[in-house]
Amino acid sequence: xxxxxxxxxxxxxxxxxxxxxxxxxxxxxxxxxxxxxxxxxxxxxxxxxxxxxxxxxxxxxxxxxxxxxxxxxxxxxxxxxxxxxxxxxxxxxxxxxxxxxxxxxxxxxxxxxxxxxxxxxxxxxxxxxxxxxxxxxxxxxxxxxxxxxxxxxxxxxxxxxxxxxxxxxxxxxxxxxxxxxxxxxxxxxxxxxxxxxxxxxxxxxxxxxxxxxxxxxxxxxxxxxxxxxxxxxxxxxxxxxxxxxxxxxxxxxxxxxxxxxxxxxxxxxxxxxxxxx
Length: 277
Known about the structure:
The chain has about 280 residues and is of the alpha+beta class. The chain has an 8-stranded mixed beta barrel with strand order 1-2-3-4-5-6-7-16. A 6-stranded mixed beta sheet has the order 8-9-10-11-12-13, sandwiched between helices. About 20% of the residues lie in helices and about 45% in strands. The chain folds into 2 domains: about 5-125 and about 265-275, Diaminopimelate Epimerase, Chain A, domain 1, CATH 3.10.310; about 130-260, Diaminopimelate Epimerase, Chain A, domain 1.
């Protein structure tokens, strides 16, 4: 039996507990390492990303998520970590440029120090399509499929966020896994009356399905959906189980031009973990 030593930092982007691995490992080992350390019996988190050396000039860091997906909260977590290492002072702000899995171009994240947190604003990749999606007959006009290059989200309006509704969302996520061959499937239950979002994330390659405390990418999909539905630009603050995030979608002449999400990040732990294989 071999033992892998994993140098990690644990961060809380709106309580979407994220482990960032600082030690170098082959990409092929990412899923097994992530599955081990995010489990309840180990360090425990909702997602895992790996910090790599950037490949482009002018980039501060490179984030590669465990399933090759793009992750908004993961990017904000890494941006906050880099800003911390750079010594960002209270009430100061800086721009952190990141390369990230699932993103075609480097991403510039604005980070503000709001002790004990870091407030991060991040531009998000635009979906390739946002189209109506009929979940059930009564949902006509109140749900949409939001398609990205490496993920698929379904946004569903509902005032019920009870267990029965969540159970149906999990069944839908399993159905979507059979239809779409992508690293990540998301089902976003949105209550417009309460301005609440319950994000379900499934990563088939890791065999995990999690009701996350927050989801930056899900917020972007909700913003895209709301802008398309309104036929114009929108700004909204939405409560998720882990806290409040904001989204801004610019929608001009029938075209989605820009998506920005924002939230807070706190660095909560760092250390060394051990994976036995």
